[in-house]
Amino acid sequence: MMIISAASMSAQKDYDYRMEIGGGLGLTGYLGDFNGNITKDLKPMFTVVLRRNIDHYMALKLAASYGKLKGSSAETNTFYTEYADGKYNFNNSIADANLSYEYNFWPYGTGYDYRGAQRFTPFISGGIGVTYCDGLNNVFTANIPLGVGLKYKIGERLNAGLEWAMHFSLSDKLDGVRDPYGISSSGLFKNTDCYSSLLLTITYSFMPKCTTCNKE
To answer: Which DSSP letter does residue 39 get?
Structure first.
């Protein structure tokens, strides 16, 4: 009876959680007409995260982020006739909100007893979002985020995540300039600007699933 009682007490700690909330810090970088290097002119970015865990493999994540985009016509080898006599520099503020679907390759967060739990898992994500850029021209547009990352379960309710994502916007004016080549373009992603984000997040799990409910 003592052994059964101890096993029962241990099982009560083996919770799964429906929700996570938290935030993080990282870097963002602009890719467009005035920068073709994904590691150049990176600027700070911070984010807040709300995640709904569907099961051990799938989740929905709502994230809102704020950062800076920086670039210059002097940093490109392309000759733009409009800026031949001077340099064009920008350092714009950017904010976005994205709803992403995440798929974990290994079952993530399977309880408090780590002897049978998976603490690390890589994942991929994709979704849809909106972007607002405040600079020479204020821009509000949609974006498509695609990313890869790694989750780590620090403790029963504490989680860490590292994610890199590319946000493909539907606008060519995140840098304040549209079609600097002087040639108009059309199409969903034709000559549009995009930006990357590398974020380290810490989240707190809440809303434990009912361990005695048949449907849980």
So the answer is: T
Quote the pTM value.
Answer: 0.82
User: Residue type at 73?
Assistant: S
- Per residue in 11-53, pLDDT (tens digit) is 445 578 999 999 999 999 999 888 878 888 899 999 999 999 9
Report yes or no: 130 and 143 within 8 Å, Cβ to Cβ. yes
What does the alpha-carbon distance between residue 34 and residue 41 come to, in Å, rounded to a whole number? 11
| Domains by residue range for the chain, with CATH | 17-208 (2.40.160.20)
- Buried-exposed string 116-128: b where 16+ CB fall within 10 A, e elsewhere: eebeebebebebe
Task: Classify 5 as helix, strand or coil.
Answer: helix
Tokens of 149: 């990352």
> Strand, helix or coil at 81?
helix
Instruction: Tell me the residue type at 35.
Output: N
Long-range CB pairs of 143-147, under 8 A, 24+ apart, other chains included: 143/96, 143/98, 143/167, 143/168, 143/169, 143/170, 143/194, 144/168, 145/98, 145/100, 147/100, 147/197
* Model pLDDT for residues 98-154, shown as the tens digit of each residue: 999 999 998 886 654 444 556 889 999 999 999 999 977 789 999 999 999 999 999
Can you list the alpha helix ranges (DSSP code H) found in 12-164?
none
